[in-house]
């Protein structure tokens, strides 16, 4: 059974083809610059190596058709025919309160996803476009929705209800939802294995740090709090998003600069965060390089990010009580040793003892312990694998073995698991 996992952004489509029977990735790739011109596809596979092709994709239907044709291309593909694809798993960023687990997509499910797209206007519309496009290209196979928000639906009311007029929650669904759920699920279950415990016996703080950043407080295997909120804008400092700020600032700047609602929303989402501070960089590699060269704003951006990370660790420790581990994941979390070091500095009184040498030598792509052997709280770098979560949810739904993430036994929650 070959399962295709699709992750549609506004101008890109990321995909991975997984052979479920042999438990291995057959191919993975990315279509970039969809809808904006100059688009192209890149694909790599163990059997055929790397491949790139320029191909104009004015919409997501063309992009997904290009993916299928690339996968079945006689010279560069890995499938003999499209019929080898048994099912498709789709990342959906926002499922609102209705979806607490992955589901088979039908018209009612698709309509429910449309009904909450105003809660994630930058993400859900391309997710929907990808679903519609894939169903058009592959109409005879099951399509499954995997929701970013589902993992966090275990949060108690005290964590997700905002101190705003309660009618806003009742009428418009204004509450904390949280995102990056599949990533937090994967790394928390892997951390439990590394700790030698059941997930239900672990209290863990997971820190997904990429261009988008979110943290989760996980108690006895369940998310009880997370940093992103109604939208992915709340929380930590991010590549281009501001994260937590005084809520009066947008109204103040709208008056001072005569800005409209869409303009201020664009600034907070696309021109703030690390980019806003440095004025020119969102990629942490550029920020670190220029900080080492003495650029003051780059150094300041790193200090602000590390300080905010430290504060989230402290607040989530207070919420959890006992803490077993802190986990860093995603692009920056996995590769940014300097940011990890700065975030963990001075936390020895909280039982967190960083081994600086281990931290600097952590190998990209491998699970690594970066705390000292005697640290009461373990600190890990664990590469995330959201596509594997997609794939296993899809396979379990097709075979009738799927359950919620607390009862369902993922392959990666077993001690003998080896990452492909």
Largest sheet: 8 strands, mixed
**What is the radius of gyration computed over CA atoms, rounded to a whole number of angstroms?**
21 Å
Oligomer designation: single chain
Task: Report the β-strand fraction as a percent range.
Answer: 15-25%
Strand order within the widest beta sheet? 5-4-3-2-1-6-8-7
Enumerate how many helices there are, as a single number.
15
- Estimate nothing, just give the exact number of structural domains: 2
Please report the total strand number as a whole number.
14
Give the N-to-C terminal Cα separation. 17 Å
**CATH homologous superfamily caption of the largest domain:** ATPase, nucleotide binding domain
* Low-pLDDT windows of residues: none
So, CATH architecture of the largest domain? Answer: 2-Layer Sandwich
Short description, anyone?
Helix content is 37%, strand content 19%. It is of the alpha/beta class. The protein folds into two domains: 2-147, Nucleotidyltransferase, domain 5; 197-381, ATPase, nucleotide binding domain (Nucleotidyltransferase, domain 5), CATH 3.30.420.
Would you kindly provide a written description of the structure presented here, covering whatever features stand out?
- The protein is an alpha/beta fold and 420 residues long.
- It folds into two domains: 2-147, ATPase, nucleotide binding domain (Nucleotidyltransferase, domain 5); 197-381, Nucleotidyltransferase, domain 5.
- It has 15 helices and 14 strands.
- The strands form two sheets. The protein has an eight-stranded mixed sheet with strand order 5-4-3-2-1-6-8-7, with helices on both faces.
- A hairpin with a 7-residue loop joins strand 3 (24-32) and strand 4 (40-45).
- The longest helix has 25 residues, at 296-320.
- The radius of gyration is 21 Å and the shape is globular.
- The two termini are 17 Å apart.
